[in-house]
Design goal:
The complex is a heterodimer of chains A (about 220) and B (about 210). Chain A is an alpha+beta fold and about 220 residues long. Chain A contains six helices and nine strands. Chain B folds into two domains: about 20-125, RNA polymerase sigma factor, region 2, helix turn helix motif (Rna Polymerase Sigma Factor, Chain: A, Orthogonal Bundle), CATH 1.10.1740; about 125-210, Winged helix-like DNA-binding domain superfamily/Winged helix DNA-binding domain (Arc Repressor Mutant, subunit A). Chain B has helices at about 1-15, 35-45, 50-70, 75-90, 100-120, 125-145, 150-160, 160-175, 180-185, 190-209. Classes of the chains: A alpha+beta (about 220), B mainly alpha (about 210). At the A-B interface, helix 1, helix 3, helix 4 and strand 8 of A face helix 3, helix 4, helix 5, helix 6 and helix 7 of B.
Amino acid sequence: MNYQTPTLRRALAADYAIGLMPSVARRRFERLLLDDAALRAELAQWQEHLTSLTQALPEQPVPERVWHHITARIEPQTLHVPEKRPFWSWLRITAAVCTLVIAVTLGVIYNRDSALYSATLLTADARPALKVEAHGDYLRVESLSLAVVEQDRSLELWAIPADGKPISLGVIPPGGKGRVELSDAQKQLIGKPIALAVSLEPKGGSPTGQPTGPVLYQGALAAR
Amino acid sequence: MNGTTAGRELTSAGNRQRTQPNVRRSPISIADTDQLKQLLAQCSLGDRRAFETLYRSVGPRLHGVALRLMGRSDLAEEVLQESFVRIWNNASRYEAHLSAPLTWMINITRNQAIDQLRKHRDRPLADIEEQALVDESPSAHEQLNSAREASALNRCLDSLEGMQRQSITVAYFQGLSCSELAQHMAAPLGSVKSWIRRGMERLRRCLES
């Protein structure tokens, strides 16, 4: 379909804003949105207008269980596991710790190239998309479920330090698997509290030195 | 939105009361756009406390939207829960220059609700649900009529023909696709499409004038 005529773009944005599109068309339109800032603006305008339709809706008190479910979802690692057999779980933890210590020791002794930090970058709907491991002077990236990128596009990896200004780490190899070499300046970043993000850019990477396209994936870099 | 504030100021101008648009709403007035923007920015940096504040202030509002669309409290709660997980995960994607924070969050909730409604509708409707759907349609309308706030949108909706207005509002609150809407309104698909298209064009002209 031709998405370029202004009338059609506007009409499609209206359909999407109302909620008229069948699921397949919705997903297609959402993919278009990712890479089309003007279309996002068109849609936002419709949504802003239509949201007044909800003004008359009464507020509904929210049962406390909803918040518990939400926190359980965003922090799955703190989920409570019933402590039925403290002795066995103590034994299990000890065994796990021992294994870990041995593994780390062996790793350090036999494989000086092991990854120090790693990150799993997630899509907007929190699906794992890209695994990044930071080694001494390079990153190893591995695609988990990367979007298919057009010929004239590249995926660019960014480090986002605490001050929020993204620093390019380089372009992800086509296919999403391989090495991204780090310069001395980039190496300085690894180990600091940074988030990683991947944006869609023109082939070869952003011409401006800052992300120009939408952010597709993101995740924090943590020590292994 | 300008129309809304202007309208509220007009109505309260005659009263002794100073303009306090959201006295009823607590703990944070949801009209406080700047505060919501800031909370979203903090969420994008992983600030859990900001997220909880955000949840406490807009939760009841989004719950109202979810309940209106889903029509069942258990389903509405699921939608609300999923919406907040998305808000947390996607806070960094909020584009402050494009839309108000509440609009962004309401649309996350609506999209989530529409997906769920579609999922439930993919299997044939049971009679009870069919009945529920039919019952829904006038209340979408009453809802609008009952609270005639002088918003620009309502003024412009009034300028539409009956079928144009009805098809837009029914679709908005029920997440129906064009063909489902045609079936629901017992009208030919072509007519429904043209009601929507012309209605939306007229709405846009009216809102932009």
